[in-house]
Amino acid sequence: MEQTDSKSFEALMTRLEEITRKLERGDIPLEESLKMFEEGTALIGVCKKMLDSAEQKVRLLVRDETGEKLVPFDGEGEQ
């Protein structure tokens, strides 16, 4: 598997979609399918970490002026 640390989220998702398409076709040998499945699960982990990091950044950016309370994403609490 290629190094994923320096790739963008979008590039990782594109690779994951490619793997998914190939696995869904079902025309590749079992050994290759297992390798692709392993790569896919690793990519999911990396993407999840990237999304978690982005969520934390968003949470920091949407704090109200007191720094205590997060602004809700769903619009609740707006006046």
Short description:
The protein has 79 residues and is mostly helical. The protein has helices at residues 9-25, 30-61.
Question: Could you explain the architecture of this structure?
Answer:
The chain is an all-alpha fold and 79 residues long. 62% of the residues lie in helices and 0% in strands. The protein has helices spanning 9-25, 30-61. Helix 1 (9-25) runs antiparallel to helix 2 (30-61). The mean pLDDT is 84.
Radius of gyration: 19 Å
Rounded mean pLDDT score: 84
Q: Low-confidence parts lasting 5 or more residues at pLDDT below 50?
A: none
Taking the sheet with the most strands, its summary is: none
- State which percent range the strand residues make up: under 5%
User: Roughly what percent helix?
Assistant: 55-70%
Q: What gross morphology would you assign?
A: elongated
Task: Return the string of H and E elements.
Answer: HH
Distance between the termini: 50 Å
The oligomeric status of these chains comes to single chain
Count of DSSP-assigned helices: 2
